[in-house]
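Sample entry (118 residues):
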Amino acid sequence: MKNSRDGEKSIHTVLMTTVVIFLELIRILFIMFIFIGILGYFVGEVYIEIGTDIDKFGWMTYIAIPLLFFVLYRNKLQFSGWYKGKGREKLPKIVSQILIFTSISLLFLPPVLSFFFN
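Predicted structure, serialized as tokens:
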């Protein structure tokens, strides 16, 4: 016969897991908004200063900056949060390198394209 304390422990575990996942989600969103906001502002100001057509080519930064955040989170930030469950692995090195190269390329493309097509 099962003890009623076993049921209480499983309910407690489920509730704590739900709270931890919710807190981790809030943490991710908070860090993401700060990271994307600061880097986006900085990149936008640089683009304006060098005369890049942001209306035509600025969309590339909307892909590049979240990609950089994704690599940062998967390789560093996920190990310092509240969630300690399964699936916490770094990205493979080649995947990280490809994503970082793609992001940096997307950040450098708008000024180059703006120079050639304006």
